[in-house]
Amino acid sequence: MPHIEREELTPEESDQLLLPGGRPPLWKHMESIGAVGLQQREGVPSCSQKGLPCPSDSSELVLECLQQFKVTQTQLQQIQTSLLGSMEQALGGQASPASTVRMLPTYVGSTPHGTEQGDFLVLELGATGASLRVLWVTLMGTEGHRMEPRSQEFVIPPEVMLGPGQQLFDFAAHCLSEFLDAFPVSTQDLQLGFSFSFPCHQTGLDRSTLISWTKGFRCSGVEGHDVVQLLRDAIKRQGAYNIDVVAVVNDTVGTMMGCEPGVGPCEVGLVVDTGTNACYMEEARHVAVLDEDRGRVCVSVEWGSFGDDEALGPVLTTFDHALDRESLNPGAQRFEKMIGGLYLGELVRLVLAHLAQRGALFGGCTSPALLSRGSILLQHVTEMEDPLAGAARVHAILQDLGLSVGASDAELVRYVCTAVFTRAARLCAAALAAVLSRLQHSREQQMLQIAVATGGRVFERHPSFLSILQETVMLLVPECDVSFIPSVDGGGRGVAMVTAVAARLAAHRRLLEETLAPFRLNREQLAAVQAQMQEAMAKGLQGEASSLRMLPTYVRATPDGSERGDFLALDLGGTNFRVLLVRVTAGGVQITSQVYSIPECVAQGSGQQLFDHIVDCIVDFQQKQGLSGQSLPLGFTFSFPCRQLGLDQGILLNWTKGFNASDCEGQDVVCLLREAIGRKQAVKLNVVAIVNDTVGTMMSCGYEDPRCEVGLIVGTGTNACYMEELRNVASVAGDSGHMCINMEWGAFGDDGSLGLLRTCFDANVDQASINPGKQSFEKMISGMYLGEIVRHILLHLTSLGVLFRGQQTQRLQTRDIFKTKFLSEIESDSLALRQVRAILEDLGLPLTSDDALIVLEVCQAVSQRAAQLCGAGVAAVVEKIRENRGLEELTVSVGVDGTLYKLHPHFSGLVAATVRELAPRCAVTFLQSEDGSGKGAALVTAVACRLAQMDHV
Ligand code: BG6
Ligand code: GLC
Ligand code: GLC
Fold first, then answer.
1. Phi, psi at residue 817, to the nearest 5°?
2. Which ligand lies nearest the alpha carbon of 593?
3. Would the CB of 198 count as within 6 Å of ligand 2?
4. Catalytic-labelled residue, pool 14, 208, 367, 639
5. C-alpha 715 – ligand 3 centre gap (Å)
6. Ligand 1 pocket residue status of 304, Cβ below 6 Å
7. Residue 48's pLDDT is what?
């Protein structure tokens, strides 16, 4: 960490440093004072009489003394860097002595919507010196006008500020009663937000333990205790009113939250009042003490304690040391003691006393008041420093202190005030610059646009403080575009906001939970799905009424490795239509393939058009591969339900997914393909096998792993196949051996058996599909539908006001706008919420960070249900195989393909976990198919060719 160095200044630098906006340079002032000379006052001994410096020497002395208050730009940069390092260490949870700032997470996770409503009681303690404020704040939501809060200020007696804690909280409870007596309110339901401006460890929105008193407070028995509880106890002891303390916040948080939202939200709160501090919205994952990797959280920097490890050494003056020694908390809050309003008057007093003692002011005389602690207050400094206030006011203040004021004294005193104030503003700017750099870094933005809410009496009463701060911030972080917005009604409105936000978030969470509850399936529900599936499988195999068709595929064996030859394959029905050349050699399988598009008008046009298009693609592929004229055996992956009567015969039962070409259902697809080949006379093709994609996938994985006896697809659609005992298959003759069964599980539940699990969102998606009432299971699981389910939930949550501030947009009402691939992207941990925001902003949806979290939760609920239902299906299949074989334990592999399964970050894990849970006696390995089911179709063809050759022999 860089240390802060002492530096000599050039006169230009000094000019710049001491100059708040628009004031003539101090050095020039000094020169003019020197030229005019100081007038001697009547009754005051002259310098020469007292052996004191001459007037011009006085101004030299003042200047020399004020040199100590100058902080160069390099030093400011060093403070900025050092504080930033300290902040990052504290965020990272490193208990290093150098990390003197505390970085305390608050329980505020979102900035206000502007929709907050309701009446709130606010109690402010600790922000403004010895006064305590009670407010009644009415928030009107977006529609209403702003209502001025009612407020009352109470002065806390010094003995209460330093006495037992119980006395302080009893005093606060008494003030609340007095306020409510004076302003009776109609409601019984009093919700209070407590602004408590001291460093606290917060463990909940209404739980906060005081770490240590700062500023002028030192009550016994409070440090280490929950201040909310202490207040609640005191209110109870008081007994007059029933007040619920809903939230506790630091004043910086109140300041940030109370800010009228401008173009963007206000994400930094800066207070310079009795003390100084800032808070800002940090990414939760960067805050080590929080076990949270999502969203943002407001962190109170507690920068007042920066420098307690002596990092500030070189910029501390003798006056700072003297002030610290005499304070209630020596050695602590060293940075705050150079900036906070509680200390500025005291610093000025110490400088003036020193200068008077050196003879540079007041004719070398001090007064008892000037020598007493606390005699110069912030308000005196503010008035004396104000360029618009006349010299007469300065005179009056100094005279009140019992000082005899010479003509030049007023001017010189004003310089002292300016020097002390300017330094405070510049140091504060360096600290703010550290916060802005931190924000820029954590948000990875090159140009940070940010609004900073400012609060506290120093800002309110001393406008030049803000202008110096602003100028300095621009110098230190030129890459940040900062707008400063004064907070409304002090922090009081913000505290009410936090209380309202807490109430709103709780209400929204309830609505979100209610909406997503039907998607969260428990073990019993999943086990019931598994049982129903097993029952439907058995019925389907027996030819009884069942939503599972259990179609025989005429694939009786997985490859044995002896297959050889060159094959063509087609792969139709997934995301891509592909034509492949598959070479099966002793050394393995080589594949050359090309993807062709099937325009929607073709997929949903006439059957003839579709099959002509397919043949055109094959011809093109043959030409490109130099295969024209050759009649290679062809395997056709056709990913739709077909009743097969042999390997090369498949009657399309019905289209699924996005296909709907006319005159195909009820037809043999191989015939349709052959007819299309016939229409293109130049082509010769030998169609050997038609294969479902599940079967292709199982065969393809089976080539590598003989235990692979199940094929699973979770892509555009979903389905599974597995090796069944032939004796169980009623529609195929023979009792020995196996046959692969295409379950067509997408249609599971079409008989209404999934009724209880289906939500209104599933019903919406079904109604809008091209095949309403069909493919119930598929519509809850596969890629073609999940995005749509999410979109319908988002529409519902928007209508409840939980999302997008209740504003419906045209975009979100557009079908298929929310792609299933977004679920995979949104749920990918590494991209986190940034991704959610980018996607939704791309869709033109207005978004807050709460919205992003909600969208993420919706996606998670929908994809989790899909994966669990799929897992329940796989559990049914593997259990069936185990039972068929009468095994105690079954070891089996499942070949899987499909974009959703492969691209989604958690889908495969959830499927596997569900299978483990529901089928504990099966050890299931999932193998991802790398080459698509085209390779499997070629292998089925190869097996068929091998068997045909054997028949010939
Ligand atoms: C591919 C197969 O690998 O997976 C296709 O070759 C299949 O035939 C597909 O339909 C399923 O995935 P998707 O996501 O493309 O529907
Ligand atoms: C002190 C307190 C801090 C507060 C600040 C401004 O630094 O420790 O919590 O925010 O003063 O009032
Ligand atoms: C649909 C089809 C089915 C296919 C699945 C996966 O459910 O009907 O045959 O296997 O999608 O592509």
1. -70, -30
2. 1
3. yes
4. 639
5. 9
6. no
7. 41
Phi-psi region of 103 (alpha: psi -120 to 50; beta: other; left: phi over 0): left
903 C-alpha to ligand 3 centroid (Å): 18
715 Cα: distance to centroid of ligand 1 (angstroms): 6
The CA-atom distances, in angstroms, between 590 and each of 566, 587, 770 are 9, 9, 38
- Which residues face 122 on adjacent strands? 135, 193
The residue annotated as part of the active site, out of 170, 668, 693, 762, is 693
In the annotation, is 639 catalytic? yes
112 Cβ below 6 A of ligand 1: no
Q: At how many degrees (to 10) do helices 407-443 and 463-476 cross?
A: 40
Q: What's residue 35's pLDDT? A: 26
Give the mutation target among 578, 701, 933 for probing the ligand 1 site: most ligand atoms within 8 A of CB: 933
C-alpha to C-alpha distance for 353 and 366, rounded to whole angstroms: 6
Token pair recorded at residue 914: 């569900």
Rg (CA), the chain: 39
How far is the C-alpha of 935 from the C-alpha of 924, rounded, in Å?
23
- Between 950 and 662, the higher pLDDT residue: 662
Q: Which ligand is nearest to the CA of 697?
A: 1
Residue matched to tokens 């300095």: 472
Residue 150: Cβ-neighbour burial (10 angstroms; 0-12, 13-18, 19+): middle
In DSSP terms, 283 is beta-bridged to 296
pLDDT given at position 18: 39
Question: Residue holding tokens 């707008």?
Answer: 483
- Measured CA to CA in angstroms, residue 674 lies from 319, 603, 687 at distances of 99, 18, 8
**Which tokens in the block code for residue 942?**
């190869």
391, with CB counted inside 10 A (0-12, 13-18, 19+), is: middle
> What is the reported pLDDT for 300?
97
Question: How far, in Å, is the centroid of ligand 3 from the Cα of 641?
Answer: 7
CB 424 within 8 A of CB 241: no
DSSP characters over 692-708 = -HHHHHHHHHHTT-TTE
Q: Is 197 in the pocket of ligand 3 (CB under 6 A)?
A: no
> Is-catalytic flag, 815?
no
Cα(281)–Cα(291) distance, integer angstroms:
16
Q: Is the CB of 633 under 6 A from ligand 2?
A: no
| Paired residues of 248 in beta bridges | 194
Both tokens of 296, joined, read: 């943002």
719 lines ligand 1 (CB under 6 A): no
Q: Is the CB of 58 under 6 A from ligand 1?
A: no
With a cut of 50, say whether residue 293 has pLDDT above it: yes
pLDDT digits (tens, 9 = 90+) for 331-387: 999 999 999 999 999 999 999 999 999 999 999 999 999 999 999 999 999 999 887
How far apart (Å, rounded) are the C-alpha atoms in residues 527 and 533? Answer: 10
Cα–Cα distance for residue pair 717/722, rounded to 1 Å: 17
Per residue in 528-567, pLDDT (tens digit) is: 999 999 999 999 999 999 999 999 999 988 777 788 899 9
Q: Is 858 left (phi over 0), alpha (psi -120 to 50) or beta?
A: alpha
* Structural contact between residues 877 and 838, judged by C-beta atoms closer than 8 angstroms: no
Cα dihedral 642, 868, 852, 269, rounded to 10, equals: -170
Q: How many other β-carbons are positioned within 10 Å of the β-carbon of residue 807?
A: 11
Q: What is the dihedral of CA 60, 62, 63, 68, to 10 degrees?
A: 140
Is 735 annotated as catalytic? no
Residue 149, pLDDT above cutoff 60: yes
Residue whose pair of structure tokens reads 């003692």 in the numeric block: 357
The answer to which of 33-47, 373-387, 407-421 has the lowest mean pLDDT is 33-47
User: 10 Å Cβ neighbour count for 466?
Assistant: 21
On whether the CB atoms of residues 268 and 439 are closer than 8 A, the answer is yes
pTM of the model: 0.68
Q: Which residues pair with 449 in a beta bridge?
A: 481
User: What's the mean pLDDT when you consider all of the chain?
Assistant: 88
| Those residues with Cβ within 8 angstroms of residue 9's Cβ, 6 or more apart along the chain or in another chain | 17, 67, 70, 72
